[in-house]
Amino acid sequence: MMNRFEWVNARSAREAVGQATTTVADAMLTPAGRALPTDAMVMKAGGIDVLDLMKENLLTPRRVVHVGALPGLDRIEADRAGLRLGALTTLTTIAGHPLLKGPYRAIADAAGHIATPPIRNTATLGGNLLQRPRCWYFRQEAFHCLKKGGAACFALDGENQYHAIFGNSICAMVHPSTLATALVALGARLVLTDAGGATREVTLEQFLVTPEQDVRRENRLKPGELLTAVRLPPQPPTSRHTSSRGRKSRSTGRSARSPPR
Amino acid sequence: MASETTKPETKTITLPHGIAGAGLATVQRQVPADEPPALPVNGELSAIGKPVPRLDARLKVTGAARYTADVALPGLLHARLLDAPHAHARIRRIDTAAAERHPEVRAVHVLDTITGGATLRDQPAAGRLAGETVPPVRYAGQPLAAVAATSRAAAEEAVRLIRVQYEPLPFAADLDAAMAAGAPLVFDGPVEQEGSGGGGGAPRGLPQRGNVRGPDPGARAGGPRGDVARGLTEADIVVEGQFNTQVQTHSALEPHGIVADWRADGLTVWLSTQDTAGARQELAQRFGLPLSRVRVITEFMGGGFGAKFGIGNYGAAAVHLSRATGAPVKLMLDRREEHTQVGNRPSARQTVRVGARRDGTLTAISVVSHGTAGTGLGAGVGTVAQAMYRCANVALEQYDLLTNAGPGAAFRAPGNPQGAFSLEQLIDELAERLGMDPLALRDRIDESPQRREQRRLGAERVGWATRRRPPGSDGGPIKRGIGVAQSFWPRLIETGAAAEVRVYRDGSVEVRSSVQDIGTGIRTVLAQVVAEELGLAPGEVTVRIGDTMFPAGNGSGGSRTTASVTPAARNAAWKAKAELLRQAAPALRATPDQLTVRGGRVVVASAPERSLSFREAAAVLATDHVAGLGVRGEDYGGQLGRVGRLGISHGGLGGVQFVEVAVDVETGIVKVERVVAVHDCGRPMNPLHLESQINGGILQGLSWALYENRLLDPGSGRMVNADLQTYKIAGARETPAIEIALLEDYQGRSSTDAFGIGEPAIIPTAAAVANAVYNATGARMRDLPMTPAVVLAGLGRIRPADPRRT
Questions:
Q1: Which end of chain B is more exposed for a tag (fewer CB within 10 A), N or C?
Q2: pTM summary value
Q3: Are B382 and B346 in contact, with CB atoms under 8 Å apart?
Q4: Residue B201: is its pLDDT beyond 90?
Q5: Hey, which bits of B471-515 come out as E strands?
Q6: Across the interface, do B713 and A2 touch by the CB < 8 Å criterion?
Q7: How many C-beta atoms lie closer than 10 Å to residue B292's C-beta?
Q8: Is residue A250's pLDDT more than 90?
């Protein structure tokens, strides 16, 4: 259940970045024994992750800036520089988009495997890339782990059969974004806008941060920055990509070894 | 007006007996004179046995059906629980002052008793230090207190304002920790736990050392017999193995919840319960009220699977809060609380040995099991080993391990899926070692005529003779196989279950009983039964159930609802009809015994041109309505025995399931592709609902076999996957093709001769999956869930993981 908070419907990117001054990662940091900060002003798009964090009392912001209705950010376009995917494009749109075929097929495959149809209808590309880890220790208020400003990773000596098997020296979290894997493989670049209206572009690979680099965050998003788009460079016409995951079972007939029906 | 119940005379009737299509005959039984004549086989009926869609389907899919969470009353308060973060702790102090000062809070209640688990034998209320007013914390997530406020958000906020001073204690959250020398004691002394209305619990007075209680020799369903040591020496061949099964949480879609409304003239509660009458009884006792002043209502329910008997800690808290505030109080559990504090299927570690002669005759079955139901009892492995096969020497040694984990509860066929998982794999292995077909071996050792027919039918459907190949036949990384396993479940009935049928002067008809529809479809089946007796269509019968204002029906557990309440409803309809015909006879210039009802008319049997519509006949009634009260009596021809308020009918419920899997031996992923399930349930009342329950049993069984697993953090004892994202349950993508066949099995045991299906349907599934994996790969899977890691370890491709069991 959530605490009280202000709700702002941002009408422009400039308004959004002006009203939201904290990253979700910063808003979740608290020294041991201290209450969570209650002055944070954070953004949300689909809200799948941010509202979940709030319901679990892992995030107690003063203000939530809704960027989900910003115009022009919910579409996929092709130009000479490749593809431009608006950050508010839903996973459902990505999964079925006609431009995401051939070399871009992996992205549609990945999006189509995430969660459930109702979630894919609401979850956005930007939210998927910026969500916090799904580690079950991180997600429980009772475990004050390194990522929340605590002193330990509980997974390292705990129930960790679904945690990272590489790069787990201090924190065993797995990056939660299914799309990120496919996007890094395709050389994706992120377009970010700050409060001054300046934009910067960075490759997704450079944008992401490992626990060894900084355990308290998963990316280099700056306070007051808005992710507006993902750019995909043109791919050689002969390249082929597919995405597959082993979760409960092979979920579609797409992967090479899925038992044919 | 209810008919007066008098000591009935008896009469002799001739009922159908045997399996339709496989030796159907008749049987004569002495039955009470006030019960209706024999019901013909389904083929001769118009409503019973027909695929009548759920009468409430539209209400459910449109959201109009009112569940407990939907109940809204003027002045309703909302309550939330404070749950303990420690697995084991004493509570030094609870300070509720800050919560009480919250402007939207109306009351705070600190629980002075914790129910749902075992209690100390000698001082049930104790286990506390001098001066302590609250019980200790024995598992992480245990409720401690509740707050009622004007909104759920405020209640949640105020719960966080309660200050608790804990003294954390060492804890033991898994089997090995609880058994270790010097393990922390979950309870300071020996404990007891009665089963709920759905089963579970353990026999009284068993020995207890430390956290280990038992052995329970399983003196049920045939029980221990003979001399197992001798039986094993007489065997030509002995197969044995250790089998580990995990904790599964009930995960009903609808959480536990209550709306309690305490008034000067009595208490009304809306409760998601499998037993409205039982909950009324508990509320009356607990709060010192006469039964006449307590009303329990369950209009619609989203599943229970055994965990929704009694009022629970949340229910008691809500009633206390309503009494304190004079306002109705709603308390719905959240998903974390569902996973941690209201029940689960206990774990089991079984060592099972089966001895046999060369011809397949079983000479011995020995089961030693250790399992944990957390702070509760009831981790035995059921009745499969005692009852499935003919065997002169059977012994069980079942130990309950007390652990600092959420208490178990009756869960769909308590113990039997665990028991079937081990026994049915060993029977499969025995067949192979004897060089026999697994079905042929069962034909030799299984005396059940139902299962014999089910094996025959199922084998035909699945193509057993032609499609099943030797283990590990496929060459590539994907290996396919077919496996089979069987079900045993006792036929349970609740005698005394009652229903009333009213025929109103306008010709409308109503059936009333406190029995609740937990999702199985009994609401529709009752309409079918009454419609059949009155010559109407099911849609013409109004069904009023799930309310203790009506005659007390049965609790819904042990697959007993259809067996218990449908005879009561038919008996009631027959009595109401008799009164209707008595009053209508003069209008047709006939005597009542010359009249019959069919096709919505009251007809003179010998002169069909003389008839009245049902409505015209009812119009002559001297009173607003006529009514019949029907009661489920003892079985026709007697019963096998009783357990508490339940009767055990002769014979058992069977079921044979065939499973086809594809196993990827490189990734360890098992995919169940097809299930053929053949079941019996006495007279099938409605094939649509029966198939729906069998689908559900198979899915819940394969979900347990492959995915579900409660995981407790070893450092804190807290459940780490207490949600539906990380607690994996089979979903649409994991659902196989399921083909179902039902036997029409007449036993002549009651006026409907119907029995249940909920539990038999889950019992054999995991065992059949494991046998199919063996047939696919040649490797035995003795641990659940069969995750990729377990499968790869079973295949010898990776080292077994640390087998930490909870």
A1: N
A2: 0.95
A3: no
A4: no
A5: 478-486, 489-493, 498-504, 509-513
A6: no
A7: 9
A8: no
